[in-house]
Amino acid sequence: MGMKSVSQARGIFISIIVVVVWLTMPSSIAQTDEQTAVKTVIENRCTVCHGCYDAPCQLKMSSYEGLLRGANPLPVYDPSRLKDAEPTRLFIDAHTENEWRSLGFNTVIDISQNSSSNLFSEMLSLKSEFNIPSGEPLPSSFPLDINRELSCPAPDQVDTFKKENPLFGMPYGLAKLPESELSVLQQWIDTGFSNFDSSHELPESLVAEIEQWESFLNSPAEKEKLVSRYIYEHLFLGYLTFAGYDSDVYFRLIRSYTPANSPPIEIATLHPTDNPGVVTFFYRIIPVRSTSLEKTRITYSLSPERLDYFKDLFYSGTWFTSGIPGYSAEEAANPFAVFQDIPARIRYEFLLNEAHYFINNFIKGPVCRGQVALNVIPDHFFVAFLSPDYDLSVVNDEYLLGAKEYLALPSKDSDVIDFLQVWLDRLQAHSDYLKFREDAYKFSPLTRDGFPLEAIWNSSDSNQNFLTVFRHFDSATVLRGLVGATPKTAWIIDYPTLERIYYDLVANYNVFGNVSHQTLTRLYMDYLRMESEGLFLAFLPAGSRQPILEDWYRGMNAQLKIFWAHSNLLFKNPTKVEYQTASFKQELFTTLRQGERADVSNQIAGNASPEIRRQLQALDNNITAIHAWVNWMPELSYLLVYSKQQELINVSTLLRNKAHTNISFIFGEEDRRVPLEDTTTLVLRPIGSYPNFFFSVNDGEVEKFVSDMRSIDNQESLNVFVETYGIRRTDARIWTVLDDIHAYRRLKDSNSALLDMNRYLNL
């Protein structure tokens, strides 16, 4: 039997298991107080380190099934592997304990009670037996780096592990859990690790709304099938919400073997662009079955109004399809060929309507350890979009027809032996496309005299016209609006670039992929970043563009790369934007800020009182060359301000934006650092997915806190500052503080999720 036949047979077997489980499951299970207590402790103490793809030992504790799956010593994210790894996605790639054991997962909780020990309870007891004094920094030899070699003992290796690593009890490298919470977990252990998850019976009105969406997505006509495929490929990663219903219940859009009104059986392909393997399949909307982290939750709202919008957007005009494209590797690599029958204006408007969501897909995505992917972007930059009315790929039907052959992405299935040829092919295609684009805009009557200000998309009914991206080394955050001082760089993205960013880094990206796939994905994103930078430069006076570009790409190698690979980066056209000063970038951003909606500014400001804002302002927009303290700060830290009654009244985020001579190369990032150009940005609300440190003060101490922080100039003064205001990893208060932050975030944003503590520093 061939490998494909084996895979299909295995898929059918899994499908039968899922149906049986689904049919025998009660329609609604009331969650007991004990279940709730256990789930609360697991979520807030365990999932915060074991919830993402790079959870240590692949132990995902975001659901009961994740605990049953257990632990696996093989890392999910390995950019150096020569062959693709077998996927191990929870709820998708296996469904029974035996299947997970066959994939290399070891038992963590033994619900059979046949074993004299359980890894879960052993790790908790180890922490109680060997605990570091509260509030003390961990020894410098304590391994905390996310790239550390992990110890993932099997049950029969636990005794040896405990003797060799007495300080590795759980929670790893953090304070011991409060006794009340340990008691909850111990009772759960003693009673046999009962299932703490529960199913929820959905309201009939919500079930009816889901049925309407599934009916819309499963229309049998060819035109509708093409539209549904486009929607699916762009929403497959989203956490779908339904307006007016419980904000804690999220859904996923999947392809299923089975139609509506029957148990959904997900077709477990690696990519949404993969061949489903069957002629007839169905789009289904199913509940998310695990607690999510901020890093993985990318929300997209569905509603009757949005359904009407989709119908109007995709079907109000007159267009026809010549047939449903296939799922070959060549077709998957070129969405402009697959969806060429859907007018480009429709596709671009679909993306612009939720621009924050689509940029968030690329910034967050499935990768939880993204330094190789994210060192393709600077630490702070603005994002805007080219108006559809000035985008030639939208207004000129001939543009994409002529450019289509240049716009194919690297194959998602690239092998190591094909790497060099694929890279050279994409490099040549990119160079050809830049020339094609340059000529098109140079001779078009619409743009030959340059772009006016209104060519930057600024819809009056959108709160995501402009976005800000902050990179925090191996993670990043997208905010609505232009946040912070004028950054060094900015992007203006057109439709061809936005679509390719999405397919390169999201739809066709494989977190289990080999080194060739990982590297080609990153290199291609380098091209897309430069396209967007070049489009931004086109809005500045022609004479200013080359000096700005040279400042972005300092160093001989970076300059050679610009000359050799991106010789057509700059638009030769003039600009129609009129400037009153010589500070062109700052003036342009100031003008754009004036058009921002008020609710965007309010999101940035949080709810800090005017007095706290005034006192904290001294931390914003500082430069290392002027203030030495900037160099001693974490990349993302939270400041919690409590009232005299110990009520949390504000959480602010202090960001350190690291500067580089250029971001043109995958390796050697530290060699291109320019610490004296590092800056800070203060955001008066909590942002980010991976906090590096917490500071806590009473509202009467804010001014002194700011003064003391600005006085830090060496390791000794940093130690004193942390001792006074910091919440160290071993500090017993860290759990209360984390709970306070989560409650504060939920109060301000019902869609906020759990933070991940895997990047918390040992200061």
Question: Could you characterize what this model shows?
Answer:
The protein is of the alpha/beta class and 763 residues long. It folds into four domains: 1-29 and 199-327, no CATH class; 31-190, no CATH class; 331-598, no CATH class; 606-759, no CATH class. The strands form four sheets. The protein has a five-stranded mixed β-sheet with strand order 11-10-9-12-13. The longest helix has 25 residues, at 419-443.
Q: List the strand order in the largest sheet.
A: 11-10-9-12-13
Radius of gyration: 26 Å
Number of H- or I-type helical stretches: 28
Helix content: 25-40%
Query: Structurally, how many domains make up the residues?
Result: 4
Distance between the termini: 57 Å
Largest sheet report: 5 strands, mixed
Ranges where pLDDT stays below 50 over 5 or more residues in a row are 1-30
Helix/sheet category: alpha/beta
Number of strands: 13
Shape: globular
Mean pLDDT: 89
What is the strand content?
Answer: 5-15%
Q: Which structural traits does this protein have?
A:
763 residues; alpha/beta; five-stranded mixed β-sheet; four-stranded mixed β-sheet; 9% strand; globular
What is the gist of this entry?
The protein contains 28 helices and 13 strands. The protein is of the alpha/beta class.
Topology:
Layout: H1 3-24, H2 33-47, H3 64-69, H4 97-102, H5 119-129, H6 158-164, H7 179-190, H8 204-217, H9 222-235, E1 239-242, E2 251-256, E3 282-287, E4 299-302, H10 304-315, H11 329-332, H12 335-338, H13 344-353, H14 355-363, H15 371-374, E5 380-385, H16 392-395, H17 397-403, H18 419-443, E6 467-471, E7 476-480, E8 489-493, H19 495-507, H20 515-537, H21 542-552, H22 556-565, H23 584-594, H24 598-605, H25 610-616, E9 636-642, E10 648-657, E11 679-683, E12 693-698, H26 702-709, H27 715-725, E13 726-727, H28 734-748
